[in-house]
Design a protein that fits this description.
The protein is an alpha+beta fold and 118 residues long. It has a single domain, classed as Rossmann fold (3-Layer(aba) Sandwich), CATH 3.40.50. Helices cover 34% and strands 21% of the residues. The strands form two sheets. It has a three-stranded antiparallel sheet, with helices on both faces. The protein has a two-stranded parallel sheet with strand order 1-5. It comes from Riccia fluitans.
Length: 118
């Protein structure tokens, strides 16, 4: 018996290869939240540099090597940085990533909920 041809159309391949998407969590993975200046100072001793005080008691500290990691993966992937924090708390942190070219644009939950039905 002969083989039966598949009646379904072949999938359309994009003309230009697309980058895969890599979703990274800002909190804990890329940045560490130090609760207080003393903890941030201890983190600084291990090579972490405080980025931004939030309120009066929290300091975000980037993980060691995070800048070089983001620079390397940004060449092969479209990066999405996810966070549960509010835009007020993350604005300064994400601004640095934007200026370095890791993120061409940013959307917060308030932007997404206006444009998409969830």
């Amino acid at each position: 018996m002969g083989s039966v041809e598949d009646p379904r159309p072949r999938p359309i391949q994009p003309e230009v290869p697309r980058q895969k998407v890599l979703i990274l969590d800002l909190n804990g993975l890329l940045l560490r939240l130090c609760k207080g200046v003393a903890e941030a100072e201890r983190a600084r001793e291990f090579g972490h540099l405080p980025v931004s005080p939030v309120g009066s008691c929290m300091v975000y500290v980037p993980r060691v090597g995070v800048s070089s990691f983001l620079a390397e993966v940004a060449t092969d992937f479209t990066l999405i940085i996810w966070t549960s924090r509010t835009s007020r708390n993350t604005h300064l942190l994400l601004k640095d990533m934007e200026e370095r070219g890791f993120m061409p644009r940013r959307f917060f939950q308030t932007h997404v909920s206006r444009h998409f039905v969830v």
